[in-house]
Design brief:
With 115 residues, this protein is mainly β. It contains no helices and ten strands. It has strands spanning 3-7, 10-12, 18-25, 34-39, 46-51, 57-59, 67-72, 77-82, 91-96, 109-113. Strands 2-10-9-4-5-6 form a six-stranded mixed β-sheet, with no helix packed on it. It has a four-stranded antiparallel β-sheet with strand order 1-3-8-7, with no helix packed on it. The termini are far apart.
Length: 115
């Protein structure tokens, strides 16, 4: 069955960096675009960044120039490098295909940006 395991979150000061990882299994990873999502308290889950199988990238406007999505098809893993973090980036971060294609979601990884 499809599984996503997110990791790499934590508490970081404003301006700091984190690198998130999402290990996927149960489907042919290299055939699918992958998306990072985030959900802040009291808000809906929102798309952050997407990468297609050949490596084309798309970002939410508020993270452009600060976040970089990448993938390693050999490891079935998608990454999110987050730099210059802001308090408004605080959320639980998840991965899935675009549009939440797969019904199974991982537990997410908490990112808290605070001084």
């Amino acid at each position: 069955q499809v599984q996503f395991v997110e990791s790499g979150g934590g508490l970081v000061q404003p301006g700091g960096s984190l690198r998130l990882s999402c290990a996927a299994s149960g489907f042919t990873f290299s055939n699918y675009a992958m998306t990072w999502y985030r959900q802040a308290p009291g808000k809906e889950r929102d798309m952050v960044a997407t990468i297609t199988p050949p490596g084309r990238r798309n970002y939410k406007d508020s993270v452009k120039g600060r976040f970089t999505i990448s993938r390693d098809n050999a490891k079935n893993t998608v990454y999110l490098q987050m730099n210059s973090l802001k308090p408004e980036d605080t959320a639980v971060y998840y991965c899935n295909a675009p549009g939440g294609f797969f019904s199974a979601w991982g537990q997410g990884t908490q990112v808290t940006v605070s001084s």
